[in-house]
């Protein structure tokens, strides 16, 4: 019993009457006895990084402003955030698959905009593929910028984004001097496979290989520079052609791999290594995928096997903007590549897909795609070449629904360098989604049939 107005009233009566009182804030009725509490849902709540998810808000007042915010911590502990402003529909819902954002990190109807719009993401990469990204998504009252001022949270939900599907196996490889990580799909195999080569950032980048294995392909991510288990010094490439051939053959010879169904994928300087390896007469890949990289090098080779001297020899081609941010784009212009380094592709017998980001500020991708196409045409092999070209896309075209950074920290020593990658957020995201679909189709055609 509760004393109210001099009378004793049963508690449940007070609670029932309070539940029927509508609280009006700023002219919008946010709660009532007829409407459940606001709800935010994400489906599925556990998915691979390249799967779409559906994000919806329910039980809201009609035609009211709301903000949907996504937050995620990177492996380094940095907080990434994206948000979008919506106006609810007459039925009191908001559906990111259907409804346009009217402000925030992106505009228009972009079902995955909260994921690819995450910022900041300076040079970020997923280092621990065995754990998911955990996305915290919040439904907020009004059109707000969450990081700028306090806001009222109406509902929240978490979702997990994985690179490794259940049952995928991750195997460290340190064999005959070869350093890398092998990912195998669930099951006994054998599987078609990809050798995975990245750029001059160095180390061992695993997430693309993990995702390939999640889609049914064995994939071997190979280190070749800047790794503690490779010969030093770490600022230059100290392995040559025999190293890359050994890695390809190691993958071919694995008992759970179809030896005649092995392709190679390279990004940035990894494109040059991909082409160089594929042009050896005793290496027979089933397909090549090249993303924004050169067909040669202007880095002076220390020997015929491809080992390099100092990596800074190309600095005369570096350009800087008004903020001192460096672009490496001119380094790989065909005119600046040493003639002896340009891969002739005379031994190439397999299909080659080249992916171009037309806003690439780190490599001369359009010019190198032209050079490769001309080289294959001269060798009467133009039927092997496929080009995908994306306006507004930058250098780092990666798996879809992941954020892009137009510039990021490249090095701290001997000097701090921030480098330009390029890419406009929405156009780059569209390129990643479309190119990933076509990469998987290309692999399906050339590795499974």
UniProtKB/TrEMBL annotation:
A Pfam family: Bile_Hydr_Trans
InterPro entries documented for this protein: AB_hydrolase_fold, Acyl-CoA_thioEstase_long-chain, BAAT_C, Thio_Ohase/aa_AcTrfase, Thio_Ohase/BAAT_N
Coiled-coil stretches noted in the UniProt entry, renumbered to this chain: none
GO MF annotation terms: fatty acyl-CoA hydrolase activity
Domain of life (superkingdom): Eukaryota
Residue ranges annotated for the BAAT/Acyl-CoA thioester hydrolase C-terminal domain, each copy included: 243-447
Domain Acyl-CoA thioester hydrolase/bile acid-CoA amino acid N-acetyltransferase, chain residue ranges per copy: 50-175
Residues forming the catalytic site: 268 (charge relay system), 360 (charge relay system), 395 (charge relay system)
BP term (GO), one: acyl-CoA metabolic process
PANTHER family registered for this protein in UniProt: ACYL-COA THIOESTERASE 17-RELATED, ACYL-COENZYME A THIOESTERASE-RELATED
Family statement: Belongs to the C/M/P thioester hydrolase family.
Protein name: Acyl-coenzyme A thioesterase 4-like
Organism: Champsocephalus gunnari (Mackerel icefish)
Lineage, uppermost ranks: Eukaryota, Metazoa, Chordata, Craniata, Vertebrata
């Amino acid at each position: 019993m509760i004393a109210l107005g001099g009378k004793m009233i049963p508690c449940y009566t007070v609670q029932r009457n309070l539940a029927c009182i509508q609280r009006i804030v700023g002219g919008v009725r946010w709660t009532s006895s007829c409407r459940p509490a606001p709800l935010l849902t994400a489906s599925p709540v556990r998915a691979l990084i390249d799967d779409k998810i559906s994000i919806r808000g329910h039980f809201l007042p009609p035609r009211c402003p709301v903000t949907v915010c996504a937050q995620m911590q990177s492996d380094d502990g940095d907080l990434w955030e994206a948000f979008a402003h919506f106006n609810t529909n007459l039925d009191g819902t908001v559906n990111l698959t259907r409804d346009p954002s009217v402000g925030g990190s992106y505009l228009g109807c972009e079902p995955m905009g909260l994921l690819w719009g995450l910022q900041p993401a300076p040079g970020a990469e997923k280092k621990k593929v065995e754990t998911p990204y955990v996305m915290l998504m919040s439904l907020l009252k009004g059109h707000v910028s969450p990081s700028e001022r306090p806001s009222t949270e109406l509902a929240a939900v978490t979702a997990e984004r994985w690179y490794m599907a259940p049952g995928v196996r991750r195997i460290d490889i340190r064999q005959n001097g070869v350093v890398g990580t092998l990912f195998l799909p669930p099951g006994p195999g054998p599987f078609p496979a990809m050798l995975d080569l990245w750029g001059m950032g160095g180390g061992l980048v695993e997430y693309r290989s993990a995702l390939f294995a999640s889609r049914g392909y064995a994939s071997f991510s190979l280190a070749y520079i800047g790794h503690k288990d490779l010969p030093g010094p770490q600022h230059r490439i100290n392995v040559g052609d025999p190293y890359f051939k050994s890695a390809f053959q190691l993958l071919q010879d694995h008992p759970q791999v179809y030896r005649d169904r092995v392709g190679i994928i390279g990004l940035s300087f990894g494109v040059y290594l991909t082409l160089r390896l594929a042009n050896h007469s005793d290496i027979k890949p089933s397909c090549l995928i090249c993303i924004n990289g050169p067909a040669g090098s202007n880095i002076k080779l220390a020997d015929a096997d491809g080992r390099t001297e100092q990596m800074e020899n190309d600095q005369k081609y570096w350009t800087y903007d008004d903020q001192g941010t460096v672009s490496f784009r001119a380094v790989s212009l065909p005119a600046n590549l040493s003639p002896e380094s340009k891969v002739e592709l005379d031994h190439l017998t397999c299909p080659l897909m080249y992916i171009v980001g037309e806003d690439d500020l780190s490599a001369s991708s359009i010019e190198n795609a032209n050079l490769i196409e001309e080289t294959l045409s001269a060798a009467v092999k133009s039927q092997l070449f496929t080009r995908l070209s994306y306006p507004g896309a930058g250098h780092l075209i990666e798996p879809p629904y992941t954020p892009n950074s137009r510039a990021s920290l490249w090095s701290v020593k001997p000097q701090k360098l921030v480098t330009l990658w390029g890419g406009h957020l929405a156009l780059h995201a569209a390129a990643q989604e479309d190119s990933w679909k076509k990469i998987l189709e290309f692999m399906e055609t050339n590795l499974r049939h």
